[in-house]
Amino acid sequence: MDVGGYNREVQLLIGEIQKNRGKDPSAVLKASDKLLAYGKGMKDDALIGYAYFSKGETYYLLNDASNFYSQMLSCMGPMEHVKEWGYVAIANNMLGIVSLNRGNAPFALDYFIKAITICQDYCLPDIEWMIHMNLGSLYLNIEEFQKAISHTEIAYRYLLEHRNMEGYIENITAIMLGMGRAYLKLDREEKYLEIERKLRFDCLPYLQDMEKIVIYCFFARVHQAIGENEARDYWIDMVNKNTSTSMPILDVFDDFYDYLSMLLSTEKYDDFFKAYTVLDDLTKHTSIKNLERKLLTLKIRYYRRVGQIEEYKIASVLYFELSEYMERENRLMVSNMIVMRNSYMELTQINRKVEEENTFLQKRSETDPLTGMYNRLKLNEYSEEAFEKALINRSSIAVEILDIDFFKQYNDNYGHQAGDDCIKFIAAKLIELAKEDGIFTARYGGDEFVIIYEGLPREMVEEKANRLKKEIYDANWEHRFSLSENRVTISQGICYGTPIRDASLFAYLQGADKMLYEVKQQSRNNIKICDASDL
Fold this sequence. Notes:
Elements: H1 8-20, H2 25-42, H3 45-61, H4 65-81, H5 85-101, H6 105-121, H7 125-141, H8 145-160, H9 168-186, H10 189-203, H11 209-225, H12 229-242, H13 249-265, H14 269-286, H15 289-306, H16 309-345, H17 358-365, H18 376-393, E1 397-404, H19 407-414, H20 416-433, E2 439-445, E3 448-454, H21 458-474, E4 490-497, H22 505-522, E5 527-531
Parallel strand pairs: 4-5
Antiparallel strand pairs: 1-3, 1-4, 2-3
Helix pairs in contact: 1-2, 2-3, 3-4, 4-5, 4-16, 5-6, 5-7, 6-7, 6-17, 7-8, 7-9, 8-9, 8-18, 9-10, 9-11, 10-11, 11-12, 11-13, 13-14, 13-15, 14-15, 15-16, 19-20
């Protein structure tokens, strides 16, 4: 948000919020209330939206879900009105996290889809990766483990390309923990051990003590899974020493829940209750009944396991009462969603998507708005089926990444509208190519596109890639600012192979991306292909 046009008082209030964000909640809330009053007096939606957003974010960090929900919903309309799409995307993302913790995965998916659509419409990759990470958590919660891994890999790939970003270690830790949890559920030993090694050497030495606790939980589960009880007990002891009531519960609940389940199954009852007591206190503070109910299931399982019948009955009654409360809470969520949808409908000129039915939202979430092609979300989902089919049939698969040569020079000199037209020109060629059997195409982002070839011999893949290159070259689309030709050309990198178990789009994309990089280093307007077996 541009604050340069405001008077000194407003600038000081915004500076106070930014300075104390994540450090002094009371200072942020106090400054936000003053800014909100000022914004309402001036009828300035930018200030109103920013004040509500800052309060919502603070309540999130304080584990105060009820106040978070009302404040974050309130920020949406004003922020959309002034086209602050980054804040709108982040707000939807955070509402998705809280909705998931409240036990309403469909609502969470709805929020995440809106957030990703906004990011793709307004080119916000620095926010989009976070949403894919949270989509990974959603699919993990509903036990769609392979989908969880696929979404998390998108976030992982982005972070690896942005190692200098602020909070890199904390974020890469969260992503690897998400993948590690999924691999544990899938019993992929080599994968979760690889995650453990990376966390131990690449992350753990650089984290604060508070941030290490969920890693300790994961390590304990890993060593339990491979039967190393002494190492497991060491990490359990580390959890006991470092567990704190100041942990951000919404960020650590799932990791701790899995850890508690492990303690219960191994009859480590003393350690179970030490961790349970802390998590129970934190959970009650959030007022999210779904988390309380989910945690209570562990205590019920314990009472049943040790034969404490009276305690079992009391806990079961409490479970029933929490379930009734959750029904009322979900009705409130539906009411809030309806209010928010009605607010969106008043802003149809700004954001037409939120007026449509959920089916339309789902379709839009899979489609790039500029070109009409499939986007990365659909690419990710399609590739799961393609790789699984290739694995079963022992058939080949090829993944190609292509981009427009010297597109920055094109955009800078011809203008963004002409740049969009150029991208649509390439997209039209790819859409035509996708009409052929065994070929899927998608826009990957910016001027990058991805093609998946299924069941085709290597020679045919190369022939089709060369034909595409020639068609674009022969179209003679002017590019006077290219450093190699006077027309628009493309460069292509391809990874070809017959998938083996654990093969994924991510690995093939890495191979294709490496080939594309080599093309760029040598000469543009070219194709390079590698074998997946060489990766």
